[in-house]
Design goal:
single chain; mainly alpha; TIM Barrel; 3-stranded parallel β-sheet; about 50% helix
Length: about 280
């Protein structure tokens, strides 16, 4: 369903808050590393017969990330890899991060490896950056504290955060939406899934809008490694939101003004409230 012009233009222009993202690679790597970076579930190297390009994410990279590199949409994998290899990881980040249309990057620094930290993310993107804390880090601090672990965890959690954002909700986004409705302090994040679902991201976005209160949904790319993912999450979210909301409008269920107002909530406003951004 094509989005109405006003709605599509509005969604395209939202300066997003990426509420959960990791750094991009800082060091050069081979094609195997890149293709493994297009995979989420398998922590081992991909099998010799497999290819990260032959996934929804791989197809989405060739469709949406090729034009910023001066290539045609849907360029073949070898052509994409050859062009990508002409640039350093930092140069790639300076192409893709500013093009994402993100005003604030909230960076999860808890993963190991040679990946960009806060200074590099700010420099490459030109946007504001902040650091977010995962429950795993709270658990580690509680384990290191003297006395009862449960009490230490409860105390540390209270000191550090009063809002819970559920990450990596796929394939349980409907359950996450129920929890967001049931508990005042629970929110859900749409990251990771949008990139990896590619052409099916629209269906995922529609499911997150079923039961979860609109003021409890937050956009993120959850990008890690390839700089393409920091950009692709934005592209797919905007396209998916425009398609889903325009469908509501076309069927007379929503007004266009309501759709425009709702798009701002997960795209920007909810994260600004949760993280107290200026």
């Amino acid at each position: 369903m094509p989005a109405t012009s006003a709605l599509a233009d509005h969604i395209a222009g939202i300066r997003l808050v990426d509420n959960h993202v990791h750094g991009y690679w800082l060091t050069p790597g081979d094609r195997k590393r890149f293709e493994n970076g297009l995979n989420e579930a398998n922590t081992e190297p991909l099998a010799d017969f497999d290819s990260g390009f032959d996934t929804q994410l791989g197809f989405a990279v060739r469709a949406h990330c090729a034009p910023p590199l001066g290539l045609s949409k849907h360029v073949d994998p070898q052509g994409y890899w050859e062009r990508r290899s002409e640039l350093t990881e930092d140069q790639l980040a300076r192409v893709f991060l500013p093009a994402a249309g993100v005003s604030d990057w909230l960076v999860d620094t808890g993963l190991p490896g040679a990946i960009a930290g806060l200074p590099e993310m700010a420099d490459a993107s030109g946007g504001a950056v902040g650091e977010i804390v995962r429950l795993e880090q709270v658990a580690e601090q509680a384990a290191a504290a003297p006395g009862d672990y449960v009490e230490a965890f409860r105390r540390t959690l209270h000191e550090r955060t009063k809002t819970i954002v559920l990450l990596h909700c796929y394939p349980y986004e409907r359950e996450a939406g129920y929890l967001a409705q049931a508990f005042n302090n629970v929110h859900l994040d749409v990251g990771l899934s949008i990139n990896h679902l590619g052409a099916r991201a629209e269906a995922f976005i529609a499911r997150t809008l079923e039961l979860a209160p609109f003021r409890k949904i937050l956009y993120s790319s959850d990008a890690f490694g390839p700089a393409e993912l920091h950009y692709l999450g934005s592209v797919l979210w905007r396209a998916g939101m425009a398609a889903v909301l325009s469908g509501f409008v076309a069927r007379g269920q929503w007004s266009e003004n309501d759709a425009i107002a709702v798009a701002d909530l997960p795209g920007r406003d909810n994260a600004r409230r949760v993280y107290r951004l200026s």
